[in-house]
Amino acid sequence: MASLLTQQKQVVRDLEEAKVKVGILETNAFVANLQVRPTLLDRIKEAQQNDPNLMKILEEIERDDCFTKNDIIFANRPRLLARKHLGYDYTTIVSASSGHLWRNLRRITTIEILSTSRIQMFSSIHGHEVYSLICGFLEALVTANTTRWR
């Protein structure tokens, strides 16, 4: 993949013009760890840290205990018709309101689906999906580059 990026100098130039940083972080047997970071987002985050008006708002939120007083309001999900039908009558972890059912679904998800053994069991599939995503990304870059200059 690194050779694909270095051979496509125009792609790299286009990414630089769009203020997108591309870096190869590490390479292993068949997979390269590719990171694409928009620098605009980084600039916004830096500017937010130096914004005194935003800091005042954040301090007011931290002082106020609205989340401790009204946490049940934020925890309950709105009863939408789509959630009723797609969420099996509000019984999925995404559509269930805060309460016994939601706590039980969260416990099952944590113990069964997100356990270390399950994650390790599916790690090869996750790796293949990441590899496919990166290959698709690079193919799209090459295709966009070739169609742009025809």
Automatic annotation (TrEMBL):
It comes from the Eukaryota. The lineage of its organism: Eukaryota, Viridiplantae, Streptophyta, Embryophyta, Tracheophyta. GO terms for molecular function: metal ion binding; monooxygenase activity. InterPro entries: Cyt_P450_sf, Plant_Cytochrome_P450_Monoox. Signal peptide: none annotated. Keywords: Heme, Iron, Metal-binding, Monooxygenase, Oxidoreductase. This is Uncharacterized protein.
